[in-house]
Amino acid sequence: MTNSIREIPLSESFLIIGSNTTENHPVIGSMIKNEVINKGKKLVVVDPRKIELARYADIFLQIKAGTNIAILNGFAHVLIKEDLYDKEFVQNRCEGFEEMAKALEKYTPEFVANICGIDDPFKIVEAARLFAASKPMALYYCMGITQFKSGTNGVKSCANLQMLLGNIGILGGGVNPLRGQNNVQGACDMGALPNVYTGYQSVSIDDNREKFIKMWGSEFELSKNPGLTVVESLNGVLTGDVKAIYIMGENPVISDPDQSHVIEALKQLDFLVVQDIVMTETAALADVVLPACAFLEKEGTVTNTERRVQLMKKIVTPPGEVKEDWRIIMEIANIMGANWDYKSAEDIFEEIRQLTPSYGGITYKRLEKELIQWPCPRENHPGTQILHKDRFSRGLGLFSVVEFTPPAEDIDPQYPMVLTTGRILQHFHTGTMTRNSKILDEICHEAFIEIHPNDASNYNISNGEEISISTRRGSVRVKAKITDRVKPGIIFMPFHFAEAAANKLTHDAMDPYCSIPELKICACKIEKVNAIGGLSE
Amino acid sequence: MNKEIISKAINKYGREREHLMNILRELESLSEDNYLDVETLSELAEQMNIPKSAVAGFVDFYTMFKTTPRAKYVIRICKSTSCHIMGARTIFEEIESILDIKPGEATRDGIFYLETCQCLGVCSVAPAMMINYDIHGNLTPERLKKIIDDYRKKEPVDGEACGPEVEGKKCIIEGTPQTKRLLENVGVVNPLEIDTYVAKGGFDALKKALGMDRGDIIDIIKDSGLRGRGGAGFPAGMKWSFVTKGDMQKYVICNADEGEPGTFKDRILMEENPQALVEGMAICGYAIDASIGYIYIRGEFRRSIIRLQKAIDQARAKGYLGKNIFGSSFSFDIFIKEGGGAYVCGEETSLINSMEGKRGYPRFKPPFPGVTGFMGKPSNVNNVETLMSVPMIIEKGADWYKSVGLAGCTGTKLYCLSGKMNRTGLVELPMGATLREIIDIHGGGMKCGSKFKFAQVGGSAGGMLGEDLMDIPLDIDNPMKHGVTLGSGVVLVADQNTCPVDFLLQILSFFEHESCGQCVPCRVGTSHLHAMVKKFAERKASISDIDLMIKKAELMKKTSLCALGQSPVMPIVTILKYFRSDFEKHCDPSHRCPECESSLTTYYIF
Amino acid sequence: MNIEFIIDGKLIRAHKGQSILKAALLNGIDIPHLCYHEKLSATGACRLCIVKVNGMYKASCTEPVAEGIDVVTYDEELSMMRKELLEMLLAEGDHNCLYCHSNGNCELQNYCYQYNVEPPAKDLPKNIREVDLTSSQGIKRDENKCILCGRCVKACAEIQVNFVWDFAGRGSHAHLTSDMYEKIGDSSCIQCGTCVQLCPTGALSFQTVLGRGMNWELKKESSICIYCGVGCKIDFYTNKEGKLVKAMGNDEGPNKGHLCVKGRFGFDFVQSNKRLTTPLIKKNGKFEKATWDEALDLVASKFGEIKEKSSPDALMAFASAKCTNEENYLMQKFMRSVIGTNNIDHCARL
Which of A457, A476, B180, B589 is such that its CA lies 20 to 30 A from the CA of A516? Predict the structure, then answer.
């Protein structure tokens, strides 16, 4: 997030796009609801599903899945056409306006409405006017923007809109991605990415490599070739390039697109090590399984969606012979010849902050009593609540020309429905934790799909009936929940449930810039179970 | 109830929560058995996009709603003090035997459903009852039988079909020396024809006011000494001047939730001279720079609602309401909001919550409504009688107004006479009439065979006056010196047949029934007081309970959030001042009290 | 700080618009209160915070400060009044601390003890209200322990903003309703548990708490929620046996004390019997328990072998968004400086 959670009360309006906030980030969802319902702030929701927030929205735009860029461009088009954008900000803080404005010319409300499947193009105009009239507007987005082949462009469109409105670098504004896991921000900050070291220092830059070689006392040159992403590495297994994978606390069999492809790859490996807290679907395929501490059994820091670094504490004693993840890695490293001697998580953190400018001023001692958001370069630095306050990281903010492109897999007569996936309130990701929590699993214990009443009646499906969903990659059986939360022609399915894994169905078309898979949309077909010779009488 | 009927009702009134009461009342009357089932309520909540819990809590707060089936006709027998004294128990027993049902039950044929209720505002013709929206007074066992028989045969009317005895102008005492100002036009103008009001100089005051400076109007009202007629007696001009100034929306709210047992003055004014209220509100609206007025009126007063709505519609058609009245820049309109059966909504902040579609919980003050009122906007709340006094003050001047009454308490007052007198009804007298004067001259003396025992002045929240206080001026200030109050102007006279223990039992049962339940001392205190006085009626109390009762009521006085919880102490202390020995006698298990026994068997043993 | 006034003889400075209670609490003066909660708008229902302002009785939670006022928070009369109010509350409900999960952590109990309140007379009227201990997976409701302070209603309206709770009934028959007079488990409650966290008595409680340790024996330590990226700070309570008992939102975190159903109840997997407890090595298609030395030696030698035989780029590691910064750092350091590849990624995109 460019801005902070505590600024929610300072926003005059909100644009929620591609985020089912009240289910996936419920605490932030409630804070936004409080502003909208109890304090009369304005809300625009853009989503393929009629999510809870849509109920309270001043304007709700139920778009076709995968058309975010078109609608964001549509807003920008109206702002420029009606002269509602922040000219001072655009002139002083940004560049590339003319080119973008030219590219936006064709994104008229009618053009956009047609792409997005919106009945009334004027709603787009109204939304744009609302943003201009109720500033600061805070834009929140989540995987509904990014998990597309065009994910990077979706993010750029969000930035375009907020720069046009001058909502960057001010209290209560911002482009605010909601991070889906408690330390996804931190894992990225720490360089658990194929192309950067900590703090996004590129592996291709010689100075960076020098710095890390020196600090790490590495015996050999560090590689300057960017490595593989998760999805690329699995493809690499099948081509024979990748022979061994070491997985710490992840469950790609459930979380990654195209499950059968994932399983095939993992099985083909020469050697698979999985380090986790329980026997996951992925661990079951491993050659060695290493038992790791759960979150309440260890110390360390995590970084949340607003770049706030927080301390985790050891609350309970781990069971059996379980060890902290960092200790296991250190022990393997030392057997392989390293000479690491970390006594605690804090020791590691001290090394991190020497190598990572944005974490430079953060210490465990400060975290005990201070709220610190990176960048925090020095120990006397208070941290940074708002990014891009006086200048962007690159100087001027760059408006990008972003064109709408359709999703990779279109529907056809054989696969006539659109499948989109996501999370639900009670469960998290692959269910490793929540499915093993008694109360959460009791509240919701089986997978389902959401299907519109019209489709249900077309397929002669009744509420709660078990049906079959198939794509080119696989098929699952799951119960149908008939609801008008989804539009006709699209079904929604949560991906937490191993017994009916949504990712058996998804495909791994990827964004060319950041390799994010297009999990949010693929073509599927629906069949009654008895029609395909199922179990029913 | 099907979705279309529900959405039709919503479309008729508006989707906003503030219309919840009117929508629910419409839906309930559309239901065959006078109730709202939970499926209907859930669907309504869904369609209006308001929380289900809010609808559930709202419906449960107002006694006129029910979520289980009733019947074609709902019979509500009034058990408030005036009706009680005048024989409500007999009526109650009679109706139970005629219909062979107990309260809370419907007859087998689904025609009648029986309930008790609190004051219906027709106390001069007590005892009374309401069948759907038709009010009938002067009930005797014979009349009751006839009325019930009539209803068996007919269909419910759309509106009301009250008995002739409750008609407003018939509830005014004629032929005694009165100073008729508010009542001057009653019986003279036709409440259904605005022209008759205009012919008597109606809306001249509004026209005059619109030519004046807003501040000058407030000064005249201040100068006239007009004080609130709802019970608290706060100077009206001062209240107007406290309304926040500025460009924001402001409201005039007329408190027509006349619910204090024994009071029926506002009903008569609204039924007989509704245009004067419209005019008074418009003048107030101009003075405080408000463009919208609301009349919050008891749901039981169907006739007043109908007539006021007609008056508003006619005034709008004639240009006395609407845009640019009399060609001025002033625009003003009035809308009616109905109540659903809750005494506490007479408290101005409860009233505002109720108007907003919420439970009638009083709000804490400050902020006062003049700063944060309806929908959070500055609102001035006045009683019907207060607002109707405004046109004549503007028309005839402050000096004229204060030419009658007492120095600190000017003008005339409407006194509501009920109980054991030869004549009961409404009289208009200069502020400060004495009880003796009221009973002897206007009430025509005690009923034959009756001997004065005490009078309760000010309603159930008021105190008892014995012989010793017969000659104090009943204005706003003087009674307070004696521990009693004028309140809304109720004079309920009891004779030797009234048992003080039984009388207090009715009062304290009323307060328990009407407590909103929000603050602890009132919620628990009213329930404890009721239980304690019931112990006296059952002759199970001990003498020390007398002081315990006073102590509890005093705690409530000091700690309750609103006036309701602060009220029981006055009737308790004043009744004990005169009749402590009766309470002591009731501590003896062998003591016989037919009054108490009758109440216990009628109201408590089902 | 633009208003000066006196509380119990002490000069106090406060902001205009602040309530007397808030100003008092900020100055370390404790006035008893039950319906007031700093996270919620003022209600003014319990009347326990009544004080004398220039000799007049005022509820301090709703009375704004004013220049020069003289406030008395304690004297014999006020103590007596508070005692009587507490007696009323005890009489109204069925408060038996012996069987209550809030025993030792109950605001009503504390005040009753402080004001020496005795058991109420037996013949006072009571209304039996709803007891629903089973309909919801997470939340229990025993309204006979309810004092109708309204904190749950406001918690749901102002913090979770779901409006599941409201008051129904009236006067002495007032009670709570969830949705349309439904059982809490049948209602739209999403079990964030905020109402329970703010309940001053034992009327609302969590399942699985009763019997797992007396309140005064529990140990509290804060950490950060493992689920989404909000990073809610949570106070975890453990009992004498070291078992996790309950989770409460911590006010200092980004969540300001609020939690969702996952943060509230989703911690028990940590102590579930499904946890792995020893390293496992797969032999002939079946996992067998191994010692750490065996397992790690095997891993190290296999990695070494592949690195030598193929290339460092034949190895790949998935780090984890559920692990700490330190662990992710170490994993990438391991891959880059020990194995010699940039093949490191995690599920940021999933």
Answer: A476
